[in-house]
Amino acid sequence: MSAFPTAQSVRTTPEGLRWEPSERWVRGRKGDVTVVDSRHPVLVWEPALPVPTYAFPREEVREDLLRPAKNPRTGTHTGSRIFYDLEVDGELVEDAAWTFPGDDLAGHIAFEWFQRNGRGLDHWYEEEEEIFVHPRDPHKRVDALPSSRHVRVEIDGTVVADTRRPVLLFETGLPVRYYVPREDVRLDLLVPTGHSTACPYKGTAEYWSWRGDADVPANLVWSYPDPLPAVATVTGLLAFYNEAVDITVDGERVERPVTPFSKTLSTS
């Protein structure tokens, strides 16, 4: 197999990995040092993970910065064969890179993303745009649509938001999120927290918690003060985790969904 596949189709390895080549120019940096500079990246989906990662041909990786891992984290990636520590400017990052098994991905190296798990490369770029947390899935859509639906949000029986001008955010694989103008939210019932998260599709979010005594998770309300251009219509609007609050749309109660966030919310 060529080290630089070009056919745009998802393929599967015997280990259950799905992968496809990408035509994006991808660079990964640790501090000011470029560790990856690739025009032939491959997107890889592991069976247990809902989001992809990139793997790169060895010739497009600074292998001189890699060392055989002293304490390899076996079992952290599907069928991983070899783990590497990364040494940049005297700093050693353990288990920063690894290889996948099988002939299809032979000759490729994948890297951890610092914003995702606290280790690995800390800056990533597709073309000239910085990306965060993980690569954007080319098979996933995120659409933010202004609406005139009547949306009411309750927490422990108290109406905390009521609007007829929401923005509905449709994201593949997740429930609809209802973004509400601040003027239509009881901000006096919420308290801002120092929590923040980053999303490769939407940007960096800030959070609020419920001020009352109800047994509800912390950080159940969020907003994007400066979202990415594709979802600019949600700028400054507030959204609530459907998994933890009661939402009524046009008089019909929305069933609380079970999502990958449900477990996180239950333990927060």
Blueprint of the fold:
Blueprint: E1 11-12, E2 18-21, E3 26-30, E4 33-38, E5 42-45, E6 53-57, E7 66-68, E8 83-88, E9 91-98, E10 108-111, H1 114-117, E11 123-126, E12 129-131, E13 142-146, E14 151-155, E15 158-163, E16 167-171, E17 177-180, E18 190-199, E19 203-210, E20 221-223, E21 238-240, E22 246-249, E23 252-254, H2 260-267
Antiparallel strand pairs: 1-2, 2-5, 3-4, 3-11, 5-6, 6-10, 7-8, 8-9, 9-10, 11-12, 13-16, 14-15, 14-22, 16-17, 17-21, 18-19, 19-20, 20-21, 22-23
Can you give me a brief rundown of this structure?
By secondary structure, this protein is mainly beta.
Task: Give a structural overview.
The protein is mainly beta and about 270 residues long. It folds into 2 domains: about 120 residues, Domain of unknown function (DUF427) (Metal Binding Protein, Guanine Nucleotide Exchange Factor, Chain A); about 130 residues, Domain of unknown function (DUF427) (Metal Binding Protein, Guanine Nucleotide Exchange Factor, Chain A, Beta Complex). The protein has 2 helices and 23 strands. It has an 8-stranded antiparallel β-sheet, with no helix packed on it. A 7-stranded antiparallel β-sheet has the order 13-16-17-21-20-19-18, with no helix packed on it. The protein is elongated, with a radius of gyration of 21 Å.
